[in-house]
Specification:
Blueprint (H helix, E strand, L loop, with lengths): L9 E11 L6 E4 L1 E5 L3 E2 L11 E5 H11 L12 E6 L8 E4 L2 E8 L5 H5 L3 H5 L7 E7 L1 E4 L3 E4 L3
Parallel strand pairs: 5-6
Antiparallel strand pairs: 1-2, 1-6, 1-11, 3-4, 3-10, 5-9, 7-8, 7-11, 8-9
Length: about 160
């Protein structure tokens, strides 16, 4: 799916959920999880922090893999949620609905130097077009599960 302007795709699907046990620690894949309003993803190391939840686009991740010339597991990026069929680019200030939960997007997740420790060149490959994903604040919590619909709320 192509998305050059960041606005063309408006409905998608939750593809994966990961929880970090500890900061910079392993990513645990889950089929289901709970989002907690004002805090983030239950059991995640970033619970209650500014970046309550991080979201990565499957399509942009595929762009990253093509740019690097290799297939990489998305856990290398260390995001909590992987979505497909939805443009994340230029989404600051928008509200994303995942199942019954709602997330306010605070901004772009900028890649840091640590990603290059895992895969040399990854930081540069993540940089264009919001490929590193977004981070947000949980407005309305609840259970989420792989396969849940994902959509932008109308302003």
């Amino acid at each position: 799916m192509t998305d050059d302007d960041g606005r063309g795709l408006e409905r998608g699907r939750l593809e994966a959920i990961w929880v970090k046990r500890v900061r910079r620690g392993p990513m645990d894949e889950r089929r289901r999880a709970r989002l907690i309003a004002g805090k983030g993803l239950e059991d995640d190391a970033n619970l209650g922090m500014k970046r309550q939840v991080t979201i990565l686009s499957r399509e942009r991740w595929e762009d990253v893999c093509r740019a690097l010339g290799r297939d990489l597991d998305p856990t290398v990026r260390r995001a909590n949620l992987l979505v497909s069929g939805l443009a994340l680019r230029e989404s600051r200030g928008r509200v994303l609905r995942i199942g019954e939960s709602r997330i306010y997007v605070n901004g772009e997740t900028r890649p840091c130097r640590a990603v290059d420790e895992a895969v040399p060149g990854l930081r540069e490959a993540l940089d264009p077009q919001w490929r590193g994903g977004v981070y947000g604040e949980v407005l309305e919590g609840g259970e989420i599960a792989v396969g849940d619909p994902v959509a932008w709320e109308d302003p």
